[in-house]
Design goal:
The structure holds two protein chains of two kinds.
Chain A lengths: L21 H11 L4 E6 L2 E9 L13 E5 L2 E7 L1 H22 L5 H14 L11 E9 L2 E7 L5 E4 L1 E4 L3 H10 L7 H15 L8 E9 L6 E3 L2 H20 L1
Antiparallel strand pairs in A: 1-2, 1-8, 2-9, 3-4, 4-5, 5-6, 6-7, 9-10
Helix pairs in contact in A: 2-3, 4-5, 5-6
Chain B lengths: L11 H6 L13 E3 L2 E6 L2 E7 L2 E3 L2 E4 L5 E4 L3 E8 H20 L8 H17 L6 E9 L2 E8 L4 E3 L2 E3 L2 H13 L6 H18 L7 E7 L2 E4 L26
Antiparallel strand pairs in B: 1-4, 1-7, 2-3, 2-11, 3-12, 4-5, 6-7, 7-8, 8-9, 9-10, 12-13
Helix pairs in contact in B: 4-5
The chains are: A alpha+beta, B alpha+beta.
GO cellular component, one term (chain A): cytoplasm
Main location (chain A): cytoplasm
Organism (chain A): Coffea arabica (Arabian coffee)
Chain lengths: 249, 248
């Protein structure tokens, strides 16, 4: 599916004859090569999960957070170039606090997604800036209930019931489509996300990974937080058991 | 460039300030709260303050909450300019938000919050633009009780019992006599009510509607507003115009 854009791919301000901007497509490749990130919207909240590929055994477990709180009521999981992701998170935090200080209420998730998308898009308009090499899944809970958005390096953003980015996104999307999300609580959703991530992890290509999950739901008081340790362990155990079942077949 | 028309011929002070857009100078307070008193007791901290907001000598606002929680571990009580207290609450909200977004199992305790407030108050004072408040910061974290105070000049200290404003003159002597480190909740409340009653009799800006807040390792509670019983049937108050006919 990849095509060589010889000559038309040197700058993000150049279109190719068939109307593509190659630099943006290359930026998306950076996202495609990173560990899988999954987000689902359940009936009472949003669950985010990240397959954190471990580069070295010397790294402390729990380090290298890939999911960040943007405000009390929302969080963001990042896939792709980690440093680019930090920049986007910092900008999102700043937009959220600015909105609250001007309008007196927490930023609606739709507005936050809009602002993040605009910012990412901004960096695709000038030749002296490069596009962000990361995609972001943003989950939050506001007056209109729980919502899930995804922002791509092109600056495009959509609202989703469930989505995934990164290496195993195709397989993950298939699994997500099988779930009955509107009937699921976040407690159940956490288990499902763990199963999906363990399922799409490629044992052959990548060695070890660490599962990082967060949620915003009624149970967490509509605050974004890491999934509590006991539930996380339960989810990991269920996921490993499901894998063994599949292998046994 | 805005010129302050009420100032006299340029003195050294205004020459230094007038060239910048920043023409803040020492303010005067408008709506103020009076004393706050606080003590350590067996399980944590107790803070008491009335609900009055005075506009000069008028007791104008009677539903002002001058004690607020800060995060999970602390309570802040403020006297002085109420709008500056609201601004301080905004700073603290921002501080606690950034702290909670780390999501790393840690949270700022009362000692840290007190230190932060001290830096804010002192730095504002050095810019001749103080937040016109005296603050009391109390809390419990990991079983450790902490009670401190900081005022608009940046003077700060911790103690087993602290007070602001008139409380320093009227309440602290009582506390020095009667405080001990094993007060139960009921004894603590009784002691604070005794001090608040003295303040109610003697402080012209006190209002008879108060809240008492407590904070322990388990969390905080701020009581519903209530009033103290007062005693005015003294013989000397009866027939007040005897000896001075025609006065009122």
């Amino acid at each position: 599916m990849s095509s060589i854009g010889t000559g038309y791919d040197l700058s993000v301000t150049t279109f190719s004859p068939d109307g593509r901007v190659f630099q943006i497509e290359y930026a998306a490749k950076a996202v495609d090569n990173s560990g899988t990130v999954v987000g689902i919207k359940c009936k009472d909240g949003v669950v985010l999960g990240v397959e954190k590929l471990i580069a070295s055994k010397m790294m402390l477990p729990g380090s290298n957070r890939r999911i960040h709180a943007v405000h009390r009521h929302s969080g963001m999981a990042v896939a792709g170039l980690a440093a680019d992701g930090r920049q986007i998170v910092a900008r999102a935090k700043s937009e959220a606090t600015n909105y609250e200080s001007v309008y007196g209420e927490p930023i609606p998730v739709k507005e936050l997604a809009d602002r993040v998308a605009s910012y990412v898009h901004l960096c695709t308009l000038y030749w002296w800036l490069r596009p962000f090499g990361c995609g972001v899944i943003l989950g939050g809970y506001d007056r209109d209930g729980p919502q899930l958005y995804m922002v791509e390096p092109s600056g495009v953003s959509h609202r989703y019931f469930g989505t995934s980015i990164g290496k195993g996104r195709q397989a993950a999307k298939t699994e997500i489509e099988k779930l009955k999300l509107s009937e699921m609580t976040c407690r159940q959703g956490v288990i499902e996300v763990a199963k999906i991530i363990y399922g799409v992890h490629d044992e052959a290509k990548d060695k070890a990974f660490e599962l990082e999950m967060s949620w915003v739901c009624d149970e967490s008081n509509r605050q974004h937080q890491k999934v509590p340790d006991d539930l996380l362990e339960e989810a990991k155990a269920a996921a490993k058991a499901a894998l063994e079942e599949m292998d046994a077949d | 460039m805005i010129v302050d028309s009420s100032s006299p011929a340029p003195t050294k002070n205004s020459l230094l300030l007038s060239s910048e857009a920043d023409l803040q100078r020492t303010q005067t307070p408008y709506v103020t709260g009076t004393s706050v008193i606080a003590i350590k007791y067996k399980d944590g901290i107790l803070i008491a303050a009335d609900m009055g907001g005075s506009y000069g000598s008028t007791l104008r606002y009677k539903n002002v909450e001058r004690i607020k929680p800060v995060g999970k571990h602390s309570l802040i009580g403020a006297s002085g300019e109420i709008s500056d207290f609201q601004e301080i609450l905004r700073y603290l909200d921002e501080l606690m938000l950034n702290d909670s977004m780390w999501d790393d199992g840690n949270s700022l305790g009362p000692k840290e919050v007190h230190n932060y407030l001290t830096r804010v108050m002192y730095n504002r004072r050095n810019k001749f633009n103080p937040l016109w408040n005296s603050l009391i910061l109390g809390g419990v974290k990991n079983g450790q009780k902490y009670l401190g105070t900081v005022n608009m000049i940046g003077v700060h200290y911790e103690d087993n019992h602290v007070a602001t404003g008139f409380g320093n003159h009227l309440a602290r002597p009582i506390l020095r006599e009667e405080w001990n480190e094993n007060l139960t909740f009921e004894e603590g409340v009784k002691l604070l009510e005794k001090c608040m009653r003295v303040l109610l009799y003697r402080d012209r800006s006190a209002v008879n509607k108060l809240q008492i807040a407590k904070i322990t390792d388990e969390g905080f509670t701020i009581s519903q507003p209530y009033s103290l019983k007062t005693q005015w049937k003294f013989k000397a108050f009866e027939n007040p115009t005897v000896g001075a006919e025609g006065s009122w």
